[in-house]
Amino acid sequence: MTKKISVIGLGFVGLSLAVVNAQKGFDTIGIDIDNKKLTNLRNGNPPFYEIKLEEFLRNSIRKKKIIFSNKISSIIDTDITFVTVGTPTKNGKIDLSQVQKVVLEVAKVLSRKKQSHLVVVKSTLVPTTTNDVILPKLQHLRNIRLAVNPEFLREGTAVQDLLEPHLIVIGEQDKQAGDALVKYYKSFYKKLPEILRTNFITAELIKYSNNAFLATKISFINSIANICQNFPMADVTIIANAIGKDPRIGPLFLNAGPGFGGSCLPKDLSALIAFSKNLGDTNILLKAVQQVNKTQPDKIIRILKQMNVLRKNKIISVLGLAFKKNTDDVRESVSVSLIEKLLDYGLSIKVHDPMATQNFAKLFHDRIIYCKTIKDCLRNSDCCIVMTDWDEYKKLQLADFKNLRVPNVIDSRRVFDPSKFSKINFRAIGLGV
Ligand code: UDX
């Protein structure tokens, strides 16, 4: 019999998960407390952009495979409940209030049920949380099995990542819980991805280690980029390509840039550092990773100083506001912190982004100028900084910059070929001049 799925918390992970389940043919209930969001979803409108999400959502609504509710009680008619509420950081520490509240309610509802029910926590939890905080709220109920199942999907490719994960990690209460989740995945995938079954704490630590390692790779290459900038012709992109050929290193996540942003890497790094601190460990490596990331935008400021444009009333054009391409998400985007600093210097800022302008305007209101086209953004400004690696920026040619008042271009994402841009005052992160 096809399983019925409920998903509590329709943020990035939860909504993507619910919609992909419905698209796969599972009867799915998406649950959230935000009624406005639910109304929009019922009308087929997701609150954020993600490739294929809207198409799959509308398709699933039409086929009556997905419904939305604000009532946790509706999980009672389903077989598996995924918990995907947020675990944000407060003062560098993880805030578990949402997940605690939801699990308590889930326990209350499921105490009225006789049949077995699998509860799967996908929210990122600091190590020991499942054992110490989640399990005690559920273990008195004989019919409930608990598993944690950390999610590794990336924004911009969420649907594809759910359909083709590189690994499924299951932290299980007992064999029965793990077997139940594997059974579900067997019905979800035609070709079952690799599955790793382990205990709660190891599963929790896998998620943090994964993100901390990715963050480390980025801060590492940014440190090399900072060395390169001191030596004419030294080029971090060539170095990254070379070291990436070593199978022990690998080519991915070695793009130097303005630093990592987004809703996960900065948050998970802070939470792991705070967790280590509680264990009496200063975790100097991860603190250094964080510190490199925090100071990376200063490298752009230094170039602006060298270009002599860090002066009151100069106009700067920023191309790219999203924390990476193919998303409208501006959470922890380096463009936010950079523009705050530039405004402090009294500069006028013009910005462009193919998708994220609306979200950015919620933060900066009328303090900066929002441009619909790249051409408008570049017109009459004293310097252009590329902050996001959108494909349409990669296509820009030298001629596209002719409207700048002064031909200063800073490529923080290494999207341009330096040999083609050497005719203008071109500087790039990780490229010595
Ligand atoms: C990340 C993890 O990749 C994912 O597994 C986890 O589930 C959630 O967090 P995401 O936040 O979508 O995913 O973004 P990611 O693609 O990891 O990029 C994070 C940041 O690092 C972005 O700002 C990106 O531009 C930056 N980055 C990435 C670099 O600066 N250089 C790189 O080589 C790669």
Account of the 3D structure:
The structure is a single chain. The model has no long low-confidence stretch (mean pLDDT 96). The chain contains 16 helices and 16 strands. Helix content is 42%, strand content 15%. Helix 11 (284-306) packs across helix 12. It is α/β, with parallel strands linked by helices. The longest helix is centred in the middle third of the chain and has 29 residues, at 200-228. Strands 3-2-1-4-7-8-9-10 form an eight-stranded mixed beta sheet, sandwiched between helices. A six-stranded parallel beta sheet has the order 13-12-11-14-15-16. Bound molecules: uridine-5'-diphosphate-xylopyranose.
Key words describing this protein structure:
Rossmann fold; globular; 16 helices; six-stranded parallel β-sheet; alpha/beta; binds uridine-5'-diphosphate-xylopyranose; eight-stranded mixed β-sheet; 433 residues
Strand order in space, largest sheet = 3-2-1-4-7-8-9-10
- Helical amount: 40-55%
**Hey, roughly how much beta strand do the residues contain?**
15-25%
Number of structural domains: 2
Largest sheet: 8 strands, mixed
Span of the ends, CA to CA: 65 Å
What is the approximate shape? Answer: globular
The poorly predicted ranges are none
Quick one: CATH class of the largest domain? Alpha Beta
Structural class: alpha/beta
CATH superfamily (homologous) name of the largest domain: NAD(P)-binding Rossmann-like Domain
Query: What would you say the CATH architecture of the largest domain is?
Result: 3-Layer(aba) Sandwich
CATH topology of the largest domain, anyone?
A: Rossmann fold
Average pLDDT number? 96
The distinct ligands, each listed once, are: uridine-5'-diphosphate-xylopyranose
Alpha plus pi helix count: 16
| Cα-atom radius of gyration | 24 Å
Total number of strands: 16
